[in-house]
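chain below, 396 aa
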Amino acid sequence: MCRFVGTLDVVSSYVEMNLLSLLRDFKRSFSSYRPLVEVLIYRERLLYNLREFERRYPKLAIAPVLKSNAYGHGLSTIARILDGEDLPFLIVDSLFEARLLRHEGIRTPILVIGYTTIENIHRSNLRNIAFTITGFTQLEAVADSLPRPTMFHLKIDTGMHRQGIMPSEVTQAVHLLKQNRQLKLEGVFSHFADADSPDSAFTLKQIERWHEMVSLFKKEFSTIRYYHLSATAGMRYADRIEANMARIGRGLYGIDPVGTSDFELQPVLEMKTIVSAVKELAARDYVGYGLTFRAEKPMKIAVVSVGYFEGVDRRLSNRGVFKIHDQFCPIVGRVSMNITTVNVSSLPDVKEGDEVTVISKEREDPNSIESIAKICDTIPHEILVHIPQHLRRTVV
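prediction:
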């Protein structure tokens, strides 16, 4: 059985490396191809947001969060922009994401912040990478079996009750950490549960618990490099927190969900495509699946070859807008898998091939990420992460 499991591990590693190679070859073969739908990434806006966090919080090192395809912006695309910046590390969710970055030549240190199996920790041969210990059972397994020195960050549960060792387990955790010389504790961290709420009571309680943990670990360990609690929403509490680092995800991409920043963040992403057809409708004509829209009078619609497969949320049906010729054109009918239709009756010169801004980079526009999220009654990063990976990210 053990021999069989070992064989599966080798096969899995072989398949993964071949997949990475195929992805790289695929990207090279399509370098001259102009896609119908394109995601634009504004490099200077990304770096501006990073610099603003560094300027506003000079006592904190800023670690960009690139998990979930860099919040939909493109994992490798964003990493290439940030590689070479003076950063403590990049944060990803999985070992697979870390391997992708190393395969793309990214040299910045990496923290895998999600759960990683013991087998994958053992198998990893990546350099300058740290894993997260997300619970006491995992810590016991790691401490009992590490084949080589490995860097870790220990997550403490200060009240969110997802991942992290409980405060009641800390004494045992310290004992295990001190016993195993292979286990190199680089960082200790936690995560806020309600930092974007106007009610600060729960967050302040988490900060209190966090300070108890920091005091204990500083007393027991002199070699821990990083203490981090805040993500973007918690940065308004930064001056009250004992930490030397912060994790910035949505703020890096220009999303300020609580509107409390004393600096203006700049959205980094824009999605564009073109009009694929223009149609004249008579009064009482229907548009789209389910007959949810009916023309009250003669009108003109544009067919746009982008739908919920390309990241246009279906909840925008009969509610959202696209931008054509500097005008916001209402979506009519249901958003379908690869097609959305908009009312262009006010545009006399609209024609096939005209540019369409599906997602605007301007926060005030009714088709910005934040505006779309409000229409859909969700959070901006849910919209962002549903932009599929196969769409080309072009840095401008």
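The CA atoms of residues 46 and 268 lie 6 Å apart. The mean pLDDT is 92.
thats it, cya
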